[in-house]
Amino acid sequence: MADWLLSEYGGRKGGGFNYDPAINTICDAFRGKHSLESAVRHCQTHGNPKGRKQNVEAIRTLMPYILENTSLCYRIGLTAIAIGRYDGKTVYAKIKAPLLRVRGGKAFIVMPGLRLSYIPSEIAIDFACSVALSIFAQDDHEGADFEYLYAGPALGSARDFRAIHGRDRFRFTGDAIDRLLDIYVKGVALAEARGADTKSPILNGYRIIDPQAPRFF
Fold first, then answer.
1. Between residues 87 and 71, which one has the greater pLDDT?
2. 89 φ/ψ angles, rounded to the nearest 5 degrees
3. Each residue of 158-179: pLDDT tens digit?
4. Who's near 18: CB < 8 A, 6+ residues apart?
């Protein structure tokens, strides 16, 4: 894990933009409060100008599916989960789950997969979405599925779109998630000991869940 973290993130600098403008349109769009034109206009006028073209491309890719699946929606928003601690430091997992939507009696925790060049592995998608379910699919929505909306690199110039649902995928159990996150935290500690720069996370705009316990899934 430490080797992977160092190879993936050791020399990588932070990006110049994010997909928050596109993500912020998803909830209202599922509610039927955005047309394609108004969603695009929002992305053209919000966020870092360096990322407006990418945000417009992403929302254009998502909107046909969203408009065909208008739903009752509950906004979840950006959430940071404390997944472990070492040497007095806390390791967080950031989850960009903008909403829980309900359509035809079925509930979905919606996760955006908006990418510029990086293509996540299939198991990475399953794991991230399983973690989101373990956190958000509770109480009245305990039976919710996950819905990962991929809008990212494809062959040619256009973005690819995939609506990925948990019913068709491998879903990690709570115990498996807990074990893997423990390995991840230990990997972060080892990577730092080998020179990785582990700065404090930027959590502005994130709801923080920190149960103050080493195991909580």
1. 71
2. -110, 150
3. 789 999 999 999 999 999 999 9
4. 47, 48, 51
Residue 197 has pLDDT above 80, yes or no: no
Q: Which residue has the tokens 């950031």?
A: 94
Tens digits of per-residue pLDDT, 101-119?
999 999 999 999 998 888 8
| Residues in contact with 163: Cβ distance below 8 Å, sequence separation at least 6, in sequence order | 65, 147, 148, 149, 150
Torsion of CA 211, 78, 133, 40, to 10 degrees: 180
Q: Which residues contact 48 (CB under 8 A, 6 or more apart)?
A: 16, 17, 18
Which position has the token pair 């789950």?
A: 97
Q: Decide if 29 contacts 63 (C-beta within 8 A).
A: yes
pTM of the predicted model as reported, rounded to 2 decimal places: 0.86
Token couple for 57: 């491309």
Q: Is 109 left (phi over 0), alpha (psi -120 to 50) or beta?
A: beta
| 24, 94, 154 from 78: Cα distances, Å | 10, 7, 26
